[in-house]
Design brief:
The complex is a heterodimer of chains A (630) and B (301). In chain A, helix 17 packs antiparallel against helix 18. Chain A contains 19 helices and 23 strands. With 630 residues, chain A is α+β, with helices and mostly antiparallel strands. Chain B is mostly helical and 301 residues long. Chain B folds into two domains: 54 residues, no CATH class; 217 residues, MetI-like fold (Orthogonal Bundle), CATH 1.10.3720.10. In chain B, helix 1 packs antiparallel against helix 4 and helix 5 packs antiparallel against helix 11. The radius of gyration of chain B is 24 Å and the shape is globular. The mean pLDDT of chain B is 86. The chains are: A alpha+beta (630), B mainly alpha (301).
């Protein structure tokens, strides 16, 4: 027994020594350690991706024709794989593109002699055509549907044929030469420009797709600044610097305008934070990115606290640990460590929706409308914000989030039906013929089983009980919820919408009649006047006239009340001192931090325990390292 | 096993495709996906295809949520990682619990016994999740701060036996502590029953030492329930520990299975359930064989 115990102690001691041998700073490489709050992307094939995680991982290896300016706010597009912004004809239907001629695909065995070839016009059309093939199971066809002349017909023909012919012509796609091409749109859709910055339209080489077949999802070959070195599904991804990356440079300092004003919102702050110190420097600045997956938030938070991660989004449950809740200021302990706080408003919409085809709660006559308005007036968004979001979210009237044209001034409108206003709600119920809520059928509410939504549903149940309406909560998994919405079986539901691009049109299309379920209009809202306005705005470029139409449409939605809302989130990021040039963003399914651009890393090493070194390295551990880290 | 598979197939009452394809998918996209996954085929065809795959050990089905990766690849990657966690945990739990069980049985009714039983019951009463959260916070985060450098990993995994202690030791210890309550109570009951047997009195009369009686006479005779308990847990070794793997970011089978269940990834769930059922049958057979090895009164016919 004694011997056994002694052996156990020996094993323990050995384990302690081996387990605690820290490595040096990754052989002098500049390495980023970043978290991803999920089990990871599902696929690195652009046409198969749809989530922001797919987008974020893809952004290391793939590139699109356009991108959002890294530091500019509000966001603005700029050319990435193009030499200049596309030339658009007067009628807004013909787009002419000029590709950069110095862009090469990654070196890979799919190319002759393993050497990546130059990007040509045909690559872009091939990549778009992949979205049309049903064999690829694309999740992104909605971006192209009914947009390019002849593309829908091409899709139908090729999918019916025995073999999908990528070389078959599309009427609206014309190659002028190796680096110039044109696209003819059916209508002057303004959103098309945004589509060109979405990761689903990233350029892939045909050789790689054909060479890797089904494995292409896990073996990406693109033109991006990094190569995928390792992917441990559900655990981590490692990207290494692309040695043949083209001459992309860090944004130049635009300087103040002639009248002394800022060239964009927040320029002076960026300048003060040193965001222009690397202006003109060749990208990427870093050598390697280690992306770590976290399904649970506690380990992510703890790893950030011991500086094993370069930044983190602050979990709601840890908010008061890092911030003074009342003032939302970073606590001194964190500020003293050089940690920087970056609140990032998300351009999104959290709402409750009615199925307008429901017999009891849908419909367009006054009684039905008053009933929905009364329900809207009973919901207390402020309480929800306080209880579940540390009062950090924005609450506003209508479906258009702040920062987009059409958003109401200060977020509120006097004629909106935002609760809690129980007296007004009761009056409307009387008008609707349901005094004190008597006679109102049970309101069946579908919501996802995800974190804290059950508690939120209970809160809404209490809110509605105050006006005598009973909420019957159905907590379902996301698949069942989607199915119920598609089949128009959910009378009342809770959802959110994350914008695809920075234009209110992306939110207003949620109420367009022809997009009724199973498409994106889950409200099944179908008002002819609204539909006509939508058809006008979708072919208009930004202007005061368009904004006026946005406001009219917003007000129609508020008055008919197919939706109760709204709320948009703010994500708080904490960034460790050693990570510079980091300006986070979390909108339009973009990466949380577009790592391609950022990342000058200071000499302060990350606190990384690398147990792969021998126990001997323990003794050479520099003391300054420890001081730095703790 | 066939019945298990049939029930599983019939339990596919929900259509996983709409959730998989996202909010923007068209009716056509969903129909195409159903066709690709073979979900548009009659149930009996799906069932026999599944049976055929299981009988021929064909694990080449692609994961629904991870295109480009097969179930076989997932198993080859995840199961060894899970075993690195579950095997040491089982070994340590069994050795320590049997020892404590014997000590407790030996000191039955005395203060030592009462203290051990108290801790065993306490251990059983606290949720696994509490052990994990506190273990991660104090054992990894706070201990690292105290020592001045990381001692145990908070989250993550790197292959290689030299990394085992850094990534696995803390989860293993938590697993041992959690299981010890149940196991100690069980082994104590087994040992108490043995102490009342006549052969123990005989051994005392012959002047055998306490340690000899406990580790030779008593332990050998208590092997049948010990083996039964260990063998029941054998198939669970492959499933890993769902909670530990998820919280510590260990990409083992438990974590993969949880992801598959929450994402309705049927191929993984089906293959894994079949393997589990097969292992369970094997472990029952092996248990009978081991009975014969340890107890000469049992003979295989």
């Amino acid at each position: 027994m004694r011997r056994l115990l002694a052996q156990l102690v020996s094993v323990w001691c050995l384990a302690m020594v081996v387990g605690c041998s820290p490595s040096t700073e990754d052989n002098g490489e500049k390495v980023l350690y970043l978290p991803m709050e999920t089990a990871g992307p599902n696929s690195l094939d652009p046409v198969k991706g749809s989530s922001q995680y797919d987008s974020r991982a893809s952004s290391y290896v793939y590139q699109t024709l356009l991108q959002y300016k890294y530091l500019h706010r509000p966001l603005e597009l700029e050319p990435l794989l193009l030499t200049e912004m596309p030339e658009v004809s007067e009628d807004g239907k013909l787009y002419r593109f000029k590709l950069r001629q110095d862009v090469f695909f990654h070196d890979d065995e799919c190319f002759p002699e393993g050497k990546g070839r130059r990007l040509v016009s045909e690559d872009f059309f091939y990549s778009l055509k992949r979205m049309a093939s049903k064999k690829n199971q694309p999740k992104s066809w909605w971006l192209m549907a009914d947009t390019i002349v002849g593309f829908d017909e091409f899709k139908a023909e090729q999918n019916e044929a025995n073999e999908f012919d990528y070389d078959a012509p599309v009427e609206g796609m014309k190659i002028l030469n190796d680096h110039e091409f044109e696209i003819q749109l059916k209508e002057p859709f303004y959103r098309f420009t945004y589509t060109l910055a979405m990761f689903q339209t990233a350029v892939v080489p045909r050789e790689a797709v054909e060479h890797y077949g089904k494995k292409f999802s896990r073996h990406p070959v693109g033109t991006g600044p990094f190569l995928l070195k390792e992917w441990e599904a559900g655990s981590s991804m490692t990207f290494v610097k692309n040695p043949n990356y083209w001459e992309e440079t860090y944004p130049n300092d635009p300087g103040l305008n002639k009248d002394g004003s800022e060239p964009y919102l927040g320029y002076l702050r960026d300048k003060e934070l040193g965001f222009y110190q690397d202006a003109g420097k060749k990208l990427p600045i870093i050598d390697r990115v280690e992306l770590k997956m976290f399904v649970q938030k506690q380990p992510m938070w703890l790893k950030f606290r011991i500086r094993e991660l370069d930044y983190t989004a602050v979990p709601a449950e840890n908010f008061s640990e890092a911030y003074i809740k009342r003032t939302q200021k970073l606590r001194k302990e964190y500020a003293d460590m050089g940690i920087r706080s970056e609140p990032v408003p998300l351009v999104d919409l959290i709402y409750y929706g009615f199925n307008m085809e429901d017999e009891d709660f849908g419909g367009y006559d006054d009684r039905q409308k008053w009933l929905r308005q009364a329900i809207s007036l009973a919901i207390d968004w402020e309480e929800r914000n306080e209880a579940f979001y540390n009062n950090l979210n924005g609450i506003y009237d209508g479906p258009i989030p702040a920062s987009l044209a059409g958003h109401p001034k200060n977020g509120s409108l006097p004629y909106a039906y935002r609760g809690p206003d129980l007296a007004r709600a009761r009056k409307l119920l009387v008008k609707a013929g349901y005094p004190e809520g008597k006679g109102v059928p049970k309101l069946v509410f579908f919501t996802s089983r995800a974190a804290r939504l059950a508690e939120m549903a209970e809160m809404s149940k209490r809110h509605l009980a105050k006006i005598g309406i009973e909420l019957d909560v159905r907590l379902v998994d996301f698949s069942t919820l989607t199915d119920a919405l598609r089949n128009r079986r959910a009378p009342f539901f809770g959802l959110s919408w994350v914008s695809d691009y920075p234009d209110a049109e992306n939110f207003l299309q949620l109420f367009y009649g022809p997009f009724k379920s199973p498409s994106s209009n889950n409200f099944n809202y179908d008002r002819p006047e609204y539909n006509k306005l939508y058809e006008r705005i979708r072919v208009m470029s930004p202007s005061s006239e368009r904004t006026e139409l946005y406001e009219q449409m917003r007000d129609m939605v508020i008055e008919d009340a197919p939706m109760i809302g709204s709320m948009e989130r703010t994500r708080y990021f904490l960034i460790n001192k050693r990570l510079q040039n980091c300006k986070p963003i979390e909108s339009f399914k973009l990466a949380q931090v577009p790592q391609r651009q950022i990342a000058e890393i200071s000499q302060e090493p990350i606190n990384r325990c690398g147990p792969t070194l021998s126990a001997g390295s323990f003794t050479t551990f520099p003391s300054s390292w420890r001081l730095c880290c703790w | 096993m066939a019945i298990v598979l049939l029930v599983m197939l019939l339990l596919r009452v929900r259509d996983p495709v709409p959730g998989m394809m996202g909010k923007q998918a068209t009716v056509e996209d969903i129909a195409n996906k159903r066709e690709e996954l073979g979900l548009n085929r009659p149930r009996y065809v799906q069932y026999f295809t599944l049976l055929q795959q299981m009988v021929t050990f064909d694990f080449s089905q692609e994961l629904w949520t991870q295109p480009g990766m097969t179930v076989g690849e997932l198993l080859r990657k995840s199961v060894p990682i899970s075993l690195l966690l579950t095997l040491p945990a089982l070994f340590l739990t069994t050795v320590i619990s049997v020892c404590i069980g014997m000590i407790s049985a030996y000191a039955r009714g005395r203060l030592l016994d009462k203290i051990l039983v108290f801790f065993a019951v306490l251990g059983m009463s606290i949720s696994f999740l509490v052990y994990i959260i506190f273990g991660q916070y104090f054992g990894s985060y706070q201990l690292g701060r105290l020592v001045g450098q990381p001692v145990f990993s908070i989250h993550g995994y790197e292959p290689g036996l030299q990394n085992w202690a850094y990534y696995m030791l803390l989860p293993v210890l938590i697993s041992v502590i959690v299981s010890m309550g149940y196991n100690t109570r069980f082994y104590r009951a087994v040992m108490v029953e043995e102490t009342t047997q006549d052969y123990i009195t005989t051994a005392w009369s012959k002047g055998a030492s306490t340690s000899k009686i406990m580790f030779v006479h008593m332990l050998r005779n208590a092997m049948i329930p010990i083996i039964t308990r260990i063998m029941i847990t054998l198939p669970l070794l492959v499933t890993g520990s769902i909670l530990l793997e998820r919280f510590f970011g260990i990409p083992g089978m438990g974590d993969a299975l949880l992801s598959a269940i929450s994402n309705n990834d049927f191929p993984v769930i089906e293959v894994f359930s079949s393997i589990f059922a097969g292992l369970f049958i094997c472990s029952i057979i092996l248990t009978d064989v081991l009975y014969a090895v340890f107890d000469p009164r049992v003979r295989l016919q």
